[in-house]
Write a structure and sequence with these properties.
447 residues, alpha/beta, Rossmann fold, five-stranded mixed sheet, binds iron/sulfur cluster
Length: 447
């Protein structure tokens, strides 16, 4: 089985090696990153989330412009962190005290290259060779064997996954309440405060897997948030967001897309983090099944056994995730009508029926396209595809879904992003929302 990659060419690290070191987590999604860091801290790992987007100038300075935008953003985040840390610690700054957490994915995308490129850049600075990068990979469902003691890994994975579900639920609550809030800004402030208190709960209860205690807090938060709704505000057009996960999640990089859509009259549902995390296990299981059948046909016993083990590993992992996710959503949906997350097997089935794309081609395109099919079936009034400029899977998504949605007369908008401010962007979003409003009015009349 593949292991995590510790990307540090001059120093090879074996076994649990985080003692006394600080794990630096880049912020893709603010809530999720902070809950993950809190979970790590609960397991005795000193973890902190780095400030994000403040080092964009450094990110651009140390990339050529051909890299994916999230690579530039995270490059800037780590360089900015180091710069600030050096300023505050002076001579006592020691790069060997830190480990930078940068997961990767194998496959056709360049995500797998971020850590390697960033390693090269860090190595070009005197002393920074000692700052290690640790890169859990999708090839082993983001196993964390190199980060934690062996007997902690399973418990940590369960709690870390739970933290992602809770983060998704909190975001869905925000998108459900904010467009209808009775006083501008109260939902944002409340969710921020709630995320902090949940981080504290993860630090306290996560290691012992006291999920019930954390869910009691979640329930309290949901009950209080519901009071912010002004019942006089009528329902709004429903917009689904798909696209590349970093851009969907990172408000700075997508230039506050959700808020701008809301400003122009939308209620938004963005894709979740767990969609990708579940997909990794689902895809691993799918590949293991294919491998098993192929080896069975050729009667190759040893590879067959290996494939069977992977079927159990990935299958068990997926079952657990779906069970945990369903349980949390059921509990929250008893209190507030947030949308359920898509089950990956259902997305594949939906994609097969639509005949638009195939899970065999993998990448985020299969998730984005199938989610769009689901949005269309679910009566959404518009779809937005947000992605880094030149992102390959997202451009494939765009090419495939445009004719599909045009036929159904559902408004669609591509939002490619880099760090520049596009002058016509808000006008485009306003026009898109005008079309979505027409679609919404039309569907009400039809009802
Ligand atoms: S999904 Fe897009 S942004 Fe992400 S690595 Fe692939 S090409 Fe780059």
């Amino acid at each position: 089985m593949a292991t995590n990659k510790v990307i540090s060419f001059p120093i090879k690290v074996n076994g649990p090696h985080l003692k006394g070191k600080t794990l630096l987590i880049p912020e893709m999604n603010r809530i999720a990153a902070n809950l993950l860091a809190a979970t790590f801290r609960g397991f005795g790992v000193r973890a902190k989330v780095m400030e994000t987007y403040k080092g964009m100038d450094l990110g651009k300075e140390y990339t050529s412009g051909k890299e994916c935008y999230p690579c530039q953003v995270t490059m800037g985040d780590i360089l900015h962190f180091i710069e600030k840390e050096k300023d505050s610690l002076g001579d006592s700054f020691n790069p060997g005290d830190y480990i930078y957490f940068m997961p990767e994915a194998e496959g056709p995308c360049r995500f797998g290259m971020y850590n390697k490129y960033q390693r090269i850049v860090l190595d070009s600075f005197p002393g920074l060779r000692e700052l290690q990068i640790i890169s859990p990979s999708n090839s082993d469902a983001y196993s964390l064997g190199d980060i934690l003691e062996e007997n902690q890994e399973q418990d940590f994975r369960k709690t870390a996954y739970f933290s992602m579900v809770v983060s998704d639920v909190l975001e869905r609550l925000l998108w459900k309440i904010r467009p209808y809030e009775r006083e501008s800004g109260i939902t944002d402030a409340f969710i921020q405060k709630s995320a902090e208190s949940l981080a504290h709960a993860f630090e306290l209860y996560g290691r012992r897997k006291l999920f019930g205690k954390i869910m009691n807090k979640v329930e309290e938060i949901v009950r209080e948030a519901k009071n912010f709704v002004d019942p006089a505000i009528p329902p709004k057009p429903l917009i689904g967001i798909v696209g590349e996960i970093f851009l969907r999640m990172h408000d700075h990089s997508n230039q506050n897309l959700v808020k701008i859509l809301e400003k122009h009259g939308a209620e938004v549902v963005n894709g979740s983090i767990c969609e990708w995390v579940n997909y990794v296990s689902y895809d691993g299981l799918r590949e293991a099944k294919k491998e098993f059948l192929l080896n069975l046909k050729q009667l190759r016993l040893r590879p067959m056994t290996g494939a069977l083990k992977n079927i159990f590993d990935f299958g068990g992992d997926l079952l657990y995730k779906e069970f945990r996710q369903k349980k949390v959503y059921r509990q929250v949906r008893n209190l507030v009508d947030i949308p359920e997350d898509h089950k990956i097997s259902h997305l594949e089935h939906s994609l097969q029926q639509s005949d638009l794309f195939s899970f065999d081609l993998s990448t985020e395109a299969c998730l984005s396209i199938s989610s769009i099919v689901e949005f269309a079936k679910g009566g959404y009034n518009g779809v937005v595809n947000v992605y880094p400029f030149t992102c390959m899977p997202s451009m494939a998504t765009s090419a495939i879904v445009k004719p599909f949605l045009r036929k159904l007369k559902i408004p669609y908008l591509d939002v490619p992003c880099d760090s520049t401010i596009q002058p016509g962007r808000e006008a485009t979003i306003r026009t898109f929302m005008y079309q979505a409003r027409q679609h919404f009015n039309h569907s009400i009349t039809r009802c």
